[in-house]
């Protein structure tokens, strides 16, 4: 393996490409998750009203109720749950439309009183169907209202969906902030961009005397955003009209667009759009056949910048049949011998999980081993399908960058 910078010449099998489409899925420009560390912080209310605020900016918006086991979006939008969604001749679900939003939810399949009793794999199956099995048409934003916590749904999304980023919702009290911090860290580990933090239920204004009361304390979200160096998108008041309008199926941004809460949602939506403009993900999802170079990812040298991320790739390239080149956002390039990558696999078959002891004997790996296929995993990793039959290794971008640095120091075996 070699460490290089992007100004060094090379003669790849296929010419590098730039000027890529920014669509996350066909017709969908941005997929944005809205998450929280715990329940009861008003995350679904924020999801719905944020979607409507984005729409009022002139955008085409859809929303997925990704809380498969506890759907609430149909009720908040006044969508009847007595009729199952229609499907296209190709078998794609046609989303409901309400207040100008396109919507899918498990509540539209089960009704109000029927519980969705599902094991983990089925939850993931429905979630994927709600994103890429729906005829969304052209959308600027697809909002995913996540269940609370850091479980299967969040990991499935991070590993299988090309998320533009996540918005974290919290309330000001200490316990909520601590749990929100854990959720934020989880998304950081899988390299999902933190688009910002929203503090909900900050201040209650008495409708009779006009006195402000900080029922759940004040300013904790802003302090956390400063400590973790993530954007603070805004603070929402504790507003009884927000609760009432949601229960009536007419969210406050749709029913009272000039209210204080609606104006705050408008400012949050504007701040979110600014964050998205500043954090465009260059690489699209890919399935790359190594020998033929079919499906090769883009190589965007013009996106490199000295202050860029060390662990965000902006290009992958088959430099020659034995070399994988990775271009990082900070302009650094690593050239990996593919056999070295095979030897560096960290899956449970190659490395003992508890002790970290290597199980793979290098002598058993043939000299001409090469990838058959390389597949992107979310925003944080790639998976190799090798021609020796091994296909269980996932290489995170963090590990690839560390592997390149270790190779430069002559210490590949210890990565």
TrEMBL record:
Keyword Transmembrane helix carried by entry: no
CDD domains in UniProt: Mrp_NBP35
Annotated stretches, region: Disordered: 1-22
GO MF annotation, one: ATP binding
Extent of Polar residues compositional bias: 1-10
Binding site for ATP: 37-44
PROSITE patterns (UniProt xref): MRP (PS01215)
SUPFAM superfamilies per UniProt: P-loop containing nucleoside triphosphate hydrolases
Job description of the protein: Binds and transfers iron-sulfur (Fe-S) clusters to target apoproteins. Can hydrolyze ATP.
Family as reported in the entry's similarity comment: Belongs to the Mrp/NBP35 ATP-binding proteins family.
HAMAP family found in the cross-reference section: Mrp_NBP35
Subunit structure: Homodimer.
Protein name per the record: Iron-sulfur cluster carrier protein
UniProt source species: Marinobacter psychrophilus
């Amino acid at each position: 393996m070699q460490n290089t910078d992007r100004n060094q010449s090379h003669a790849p099998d296929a010419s590098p490409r730039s000027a890529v489409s920014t669509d996350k899925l066909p017709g969908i420009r941005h997929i944005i998750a809205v998450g929280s560390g715990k329940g009861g912080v008003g995350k679904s209310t924020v999801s719905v009203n944020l979607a409507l605020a984005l729409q009022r900016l002139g955008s085409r918006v859809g929303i997925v109720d990704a809380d498969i086991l506890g759907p609430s979006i149909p009720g908040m939008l006044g969508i009847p749950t007595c009729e199952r969604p229609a499907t296209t001749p190709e078998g794609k679900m046609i989303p409901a439309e309400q207040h100008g939003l396109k919507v899918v939810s498990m509540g539209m399949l089960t009704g109000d009183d029927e519980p969705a009793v599902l094991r983990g794999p089925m939850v993931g199956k429905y979630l994927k169907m709600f994103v890429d099995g729906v005829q969304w048409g052209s959308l600027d934003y697809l909002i995913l209202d996540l269940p609370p916590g850091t479980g299967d749904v969040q990991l499935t999304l991070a590993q299988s969906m090309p998320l533009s980023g996540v918005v974290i919702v919290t309330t000001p009290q200490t316990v909520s902030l601590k749990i929100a911090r854990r959720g934020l860290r989880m998304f950081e580990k899988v390299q999902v961009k933190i688009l910002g933090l929203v503090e909900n239920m900050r201040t209650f204004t008495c409708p009779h005397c006009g006195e402000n009361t900080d029922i759940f304390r004040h300013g904790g979200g802003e302090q956390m955003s400063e400590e973790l160096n993530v954007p603070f998108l805004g603070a929402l008041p504790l507003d009884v009209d927000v609760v009432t309008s949601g229960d009536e199926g007419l969210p406050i941004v749709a029913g009272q667009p000039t209210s204080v809460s609606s104006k705050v949602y408008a400012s949050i939506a504007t701040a979110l759009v600014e964050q998205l403009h500043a954090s465009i993900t260059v690489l699209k999802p890919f399935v790359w056949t190594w020998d033929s170079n079919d499906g090769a990812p883009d190589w965007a040298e013009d996106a490199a910048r000295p202050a860029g991320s060390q662990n965000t790739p902006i290009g992958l390239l088959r430099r020659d049949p034995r070399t994988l080149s990775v271009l990082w956002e900070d302009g650094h390039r690593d050239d990996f011998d593919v056999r070295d990558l095979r030897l560096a696999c960290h899956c449970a078959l190659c490395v003992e999980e508890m002790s970290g002891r290597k199980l793979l004997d290098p002598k058993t790996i043939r000299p001409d081993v090469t990838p058959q296929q390389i597949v992107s995993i979310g925003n944080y990793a790639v998976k190799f399908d090798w021609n020796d039959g091994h296909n269980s290794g996932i290489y995170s971008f963090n590990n690839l960058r560390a592997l390149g640095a270790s190779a430069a120091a002559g210490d590949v075996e210890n990565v």
